[in-house]
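Progress note, sequence design subtask.
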């Protein structure tokens, strides 16, 4: 019985020692877990701050992207307007070139017509000069013919007078 008591006391002592060891081990584990928990909380706070910072940055980037999209849309509209203006300018230039070509053709045609009219005018002036010279020559011939007719008439009168004198004499 005494031995059982000693065995029981020794066992109790071992159990108490084991309990103290478990308690110490549990306390050390709890302290280690508390340190890990504290580190995890600090990491979580850091992660939350990073997430918040990233969300703010993401929001700013989203706004910047939206502004860039709006700018891109505005530039697309401006590009379209400039392209339309350029197309209109090209059309106007083409029309101007066609108009210029038409004006050049008309100018060439008018210059040819002017040359033809100048030649016709020169020919008409030459013809007029010839006709005037012919008229002068004709007038001179007519005057000379008239003088000859008067001279012949004078001769005729003279002969008639002479003939009458001969008849009376």
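Output:
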């Amino acid at each position: 019985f005494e031995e059982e008591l000693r065995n029981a006391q020794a066992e109790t002592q071992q159990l108490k020692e084991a309990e103290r060891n478990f308690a110490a081990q549990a306390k050390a584990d709890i302290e280690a877990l508390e340190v890990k928990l504290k580190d995890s909380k600090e990491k979580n706070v850091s992660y939350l701050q990073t997430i918040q910072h990233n969300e703010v940055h993401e929001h700013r980037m989203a706004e910047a992207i939206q502004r860039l999209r709006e700018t891109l849309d505005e530039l697309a509209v401006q590009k379209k307007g400039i392209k339309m203006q350029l197309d209109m300018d090209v059309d106007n230039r083409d029309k101007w070139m066609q108009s210029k070509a038409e004006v050049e053709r008309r100018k060439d045609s008018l210059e040819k017509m002017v040359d033809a009219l100048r030649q016709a005018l020169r020919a008409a002036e030459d013809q007029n000069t010839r006709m005037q010279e012919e008229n002068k020559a004709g007038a001179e011939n007519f005057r000379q013919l008239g003088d000859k007719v008067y001279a012949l008439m004078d001769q005729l009168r003279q002969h008639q007078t002479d003939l009458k004198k001969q008849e009376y004499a």
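The radius of gyration is 69 Å. Work on this subtask will continue into the next period as scheduled.
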